[in-house]
Design goal:
195 residues; alpha/beta; TIM Barrel; 7-stranded mixed beta sheet; 4 helices; 18% strand; disordered C terminus; binds iron/sulfur cluster
């Protein structure tokens, strides 16, 4: 698997302070995508074992407490990335049990194959769907267009285990998290706003 960028400390892509990995490879070709250079799976640099070790160490670094890991791209559920991402999320579950895992994909949850669903089974939050320019809304938390949906898969305190509508989650996010001036937008992940 190749990656575009890794941020050891990130406060934009997901709640709290996080480690964020932007992988290479995306087959959705959304109109309005900020950086088509993320589309090729062989773009960027290989994600090495040394990088993986560093990511795990960063997540467990108590000097800068991280809430969790954000996986973005590109698309972490691109078929070529799935075996590597599955291995990574299983390792994070095992070695960083108090961290949450958020993952952004251009696929819709309903169309995921068995291998992709096996990744989703290991994460806490999935944001799914292609970026659709006509549905763009900069006010949405954690996503760029209204068609995209946030799935809270592992709620703390035994709360809801599945997702509702995107609108419902917008209210939930507003109520539960501090408002951010620059909520993540799928089409911007690792793209123009990163410079
Ligand atoms: S917006 Fe996201 S899903 Fe769409 S082409 Fe760009 S990287 Fe892929």
């Amino acid at each position: 698997m190749n990656i575009q960028r890794y941020y050891a400390v990130d406060v934009v892509n997901g709640p709290g302070t996080r480690c964020t990995l932007f992988v290479s490879g995306c087959e959705h070709q959304c109109r309005g995508c900020y950086n088509q250079s993320t589309w090729r799976p062989d773009a960027g640099v290989p994600f090495t074992l040394a990088m993986e070790e560093q990511l795990i160490a960063d997540l467990n670094d108590r000097r800068i407490p991280r809430q969790g890991l954000s996986l973005s791209g590109g698309d972490p559920l691109h078929p070529r990335n799935v075996p590597h991402i599955r291995r990574l999320v299983k390792r994070v579950r095992r070695e960083c049990p108090d961290k949450d895992i958020w993952l952004w994909t251009g696929y819709q949850r309903a169309e995921l194959n068995a291998a992709q669903r096996a990744v989703v089974a290991e994460i806490d939050v999935l944001i799914d769907g292609r970026f659709i320019e006509a549905e763009k809304d900069a006010r949405l938390p954690w996503r760029g267009s209204r068609n995209q949906q946030i799935w809270y898969l592992r709620q703390p305190q035994g709360e809801r285990a599945e997702s509702d509508t995107a609108e419902h989650h917008a209210e939930e996010c507003d109520a539960q998290r501090p408002r951010r001036e620059s909520p993540v937008q799928h089409q911007q992940r690792g793209h123009a706003d990163r410079g």
